[in-house]
């Protein structure tokens, strides 16, 4: 118990001995309180002389990792947190059917190449999801621990929360949501390594998800949905109005017959 609480329940001499014995077992519990020092000096001068040399030499147990290294770890962990968070949204938002379409018929060869690189990994959606989420949770937990060593108490909580939210969640998700194909192509080799690294843990979880939810099926559209999709493309200038009308007519003819 704290020294002040111990002193309320026991005479000062007993409280001092209890605090001293505890400090011998736990070296980070030091006599850095003026109240403790004064009581030791007043009631037991020999105990005071035995502990005075080390009583107030430090404030507590320090981390064995140098502070400069801890700051480097914070930066590295924030970058990994941003990567895991961004890829979770960016890659999982890419529909397998959409990737097949881009691979086969894209007018941009760069996008087709990116879709071809991502497709085999994205096809195992639950395994990819488990890998990215496990990595994100692990990195964020490590970031909280390192931040607590640098910033104590409430400040550490606020700093780690702000850093993870802004730089580890909001910004990377906004970027990867917009440029999912391009970023996914650049990071897919690292993602494959992470899938192999976490495979013993994530494979059983993904197997359970596959059995419970079934394998992921790509997005398909009915005739009415395709008609609306064509209208949207015509409005955006992707199709000429005459071509759009011809495609809608073909869909209506097919639905009638």
From TrEMBL:
<feature type="transmembrane region" description="Helical">
    <location>
        <begin position="150"/>
        <end position="171"/>
    </location>
</feature>
<dbReference type="GO" id="GO:0016020">
    <property type="term" value="C:membrane"/>
</dbReference>
<feature type="domain" description="CNNM transmembrane">
    <location>
        <begin position="63"/>
        <end position="243"/>
    </location>
</feature>
<keyword id="KW-0472">Membrane</keyword>
<dbReference type="InterPro" id="IPR002550">
    <property type="entry name" value="CNNM"/>
</dbReference>
<dbReference type="Pfam" id="PF01595">
    <property type="entry name" value="CNNM"/>
</dbReference>
<keyword id="KW-1133">Transmembrane helix</keyword>
<keyword id="KW-0812">Transmembrane</keyword>
<feature type="transmembrane region" description="Helical">
    <location>
        <begin position="71"/>
        <end position="94"/>
    </location>
</feature>
<protein>
    <recommendedName>
        <fullName>CNNM transmembrane domain-containing protein</fullName>
    </recommendedName>
</protein>
<dbReference type="InterPro" id="IPR045095">
    <property type="entry name" value="ACDP"/>
</dbReference>
<dbReference type="GO" id="GO:0010960">
    <property type="term" value="P:magnesium ion homeostasis"/>
</dbReference>
